[in-house]
Design a protein that fits this description.
The chain is mostly helical. Helix content is 88%, strand content 0%.
Length: 50
């Protein structure tokens, strides 16, 4: 017989790890987007210098 409490704990832990992984990936993507934006701004800035 399955211990229902152990199952619930394992399920909650798996969900927590998934959320953590997803937020790490989202953070990494946001960081990459920011750095791309800044390098694009720098390029534009150089183009407009006299």
């Amino acid at each position: 017989m399955i211990d229902i409490n152990a199952f619930k704990i394992a399920k909650a832990e798996a969900q927590r790890q998934l959320r953590e992984k997803r937020s790490r990936e989202e953070f990494h993507n946001a960081e990459a987007n920011l750095s791309r934006t800044f390098s694009n701004l720098n390029m534009k800035n150089k183009e407009f210098k006299y």
